[in-house]
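Is thiamine diphosphate placement plausible here? Inputs below.
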Amino acid sequence: MSAAVKAMPQSRLLLSGNDAIARGVWEAGVKVAAAYPGTPSTEILESLSQYPDLYAEWSVNEKVALEVAIGGSMSGARSFCAMKHVGLNVASDAFMTVTVAGVVGGLVIAVADDVGMSSSQNEQDSRFWGRFAHVPILEPADSQEAYEMAKYAFELSEAYNTPVLLRLTTRVCHVKAVVQVGERNPIQISGFKSDARRWVMTPANAKGRLPEQIAREGKLQELAEASPLNVLEPGSDRRIGFVTSGPAYMHVRESFPDAPVLKLGFSYPVPMALIEKLAAQVDHLVVVEETEPLMEHDIKAAGLLTIHGKDLLPRLGELTPNILIPAIKTFLGEPIPPATTYPKFEPFPRPPTMCAACPHMGVYYSLARMRKKVQISGDIGCYTLGAGHPWNALDTTISMGASMGIALGMDKARSEETKDKAVVAVIGDSTFLHMGMQGMLDIVYNRGNVTTLILDNRTTGMTGGQNHAGTGKGLKGDDAPRVDFVKLVEALGVAPERIRKIDPYMLPVVFKTIKQEIETPGPSVIITDRPCVLSEFYEKIKPYRVVDEDCTGCGNCINVGCPAITVRKSESKTRADGKVNELKFTTIDTAMCTGCHMCVESCGPKAIVPAQPVAVAE
Amino acid sequence: MTDIITNILVCGTGGQGVMTAAEILAQAAITKGFDCKKSEVAGMAQRGGVVTSHVRFGKRVWSPVITPGTADILVAFEVAEGSRWADMLRPGGIAMVNTIRLVPPVVSMGLFKYPDDPVAQMRAAGVTVYDFDAGAIARDLGDLKLVNTIMLGAIADFLPFPASELEEQIVGRFRERKPAMVEVNKRAFDAGREAARQRAAGNSPMAANS
Ligand SMILES: Cc1ncc(C[n+]2csc(CCOP(=O)(O)OP(=O)(O)O)c2C)c(N)n1
Ligand code: SF4
Ligand code: SF4
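Reply from A.M.:
I modeled the complex. Tokens:
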């Protein structure tokens, strides 16, 4: 449990940005909160769900999460939703129009950009949405600010009748810092009041509201000029003045302690008068923003053409001191201090592996066996690792739910060379419910020749194991209705005899089922049914070991991809026909092995046998 | 309180307890009244990837990340990970290294090579390395999970606050939840301190083979 949940007002705690936001949201008197998980934002709702007197849910996707929050706001309750950057792409349709309609209860959307891309499919700058949708943006730089701004954002939202974007980055969400918390405001809910001109966004009604939206942006700019979140910090070294926002501010202060800095916590609309004030004090003005030159362009558009920004600094990734210092010193013509004393050793890569006994391994083991005959359209989740070693059995990953639409497109665009290949889509249970159902329906409706593998592991594994509509549990671990995937895909129109439910641990069955389905034309679905090893539903079985004397070094078990299996000894052996065989004799880390027996099934000479458990290794 | 910032980089692989160790350090620092930031770079939910956590504390901490070349202490839960991050150390900083070798699948498959002796490599580059087998100590104490406490004990004499305060931060956690673990954690902490002291004095029996 987050330490903040039970914390008394005024306590001083070490909190992640995500936990701090949750506390701020709760203190603001929010009643409705919704999210779909996504790194680095996931923990906000996990933390929020532990507070009393507030409704919190995992929604099936970000668009629904925002819609739930909109409904709360329309009903006069302060409402909140959280998502990772790409989540707002999904939610954008609702977002772009609720900004026209406005709010009743404060409506705040926390959107977390993965600057530096530790765990995402792209790096995008969500501050674009403020400009696109004409909504204000608050950008905290650390946990304390995240807490304060989360709370303030609801006041701002109500006072200006606008949704507010709380723009976060990984370095806010996942950095722990000291926070002093406060007290909760009383909850007030006015209740929904029917008002078609306000809420029914027909062209006539929406058109009537547009001038208000534009006028609002002007008023917000005035507010930004006077906002205490925007601070002009004086400095003695006036060669450069920095304009900055978010965690980049921290890096600037660290790197150039004597420079004047305009720190923008309320960063859109850009307060131009403050910027001109700073510009008048310094020789050069440099905008330091992660990641796109948005403030820079706004400032240039307002007529300050000589400022610097992305001409000196990278447009990708974090602007940490080791990036900032050399760039600025080069600009000033100063010598660059040597960065490090000791050399950089790059020992070997250590890519993340699937967990021992991950049920996804059985599927990829089989797909790898028929690799030459299949095109494999993938999706996003732990199973994206199927693209890597040792399976190399995934051809595409674009965005959540895209696997089936892409598979259908591939099916409809075959060359002489690919005309006989089977097209397979692979998608996880959470991803299928998030955005996959529509793709499936499209395959059925348009008579696609696609076999879809739905990997039901009863959790959202990739983001750390959250519940979803297919797990039978809610955000708080409470019992919830559980979707029946077989009935669901049947309802979407897949023929009942073409829906196969299998145990991914039974390797021969997996192989045979996939083979049968891809060889029969028409849409088909294979649902694998085994929980993720990190989920509460997983039951550990007794571990196995390799009998050294029986292991022939064939290396088959390695192709399962289980990290508990490692090579004990390698040998080259020349066969009678002159071919050289690379033999790999293996061993199983019994402490890691959870006894799924997939490798047992892969082992011809039956060298893998039950072992007695031993002490747990680090 | 001086303006000096202490930078500690904790590294290892997924599932080793890097985050917990960093969390305990950070908690100890704020209990002492320091400003503190702790930054984590964890990969994804899956196991086995590279994990680091940056802990910075002092009167006022700005950036949450340690700039390469400025870490005072590198705490490595795995020996090759120690070498991976050695360049983060400032001149004269110390690397406290658990000598366990965790070989990833890409190495055991023969796609990459695990360095023969990462400690020797670091030393040859001039890094001050205090290396010891924390796993062996933990095994002797009867619980491999104690590695975490042992590693924290090992750096306890190199911090700007008394070792006892770090120990209390660890032990306090067990006192509430698992009182039976208090004593053994105290012993693990002391064993870590002792191992580091011996390495610092250069008289460890392991010196010959590292
Ligand atoms: C639009 C969007 N929202 C959220 C995410 C974060 N995310 C990545 S994969 C994933 C779901 C993975 O769950 P599942 O499909 O069940 O596969 P598993 O990881 O369990 O194998 C999520 C939520 C994302 N990449 N894109
Ligand atoms: S977290 Fe679950 S789904 Fe992800 S690799 Fe591990 S077992 Fe597989
Ligand atoms: S039985 Fe084999 S594949 Fe399954 S966890 Fe154990 S070693 Fe891994």
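Short version: Chain B touches chain A through 69 residues (CB under 8 Å).
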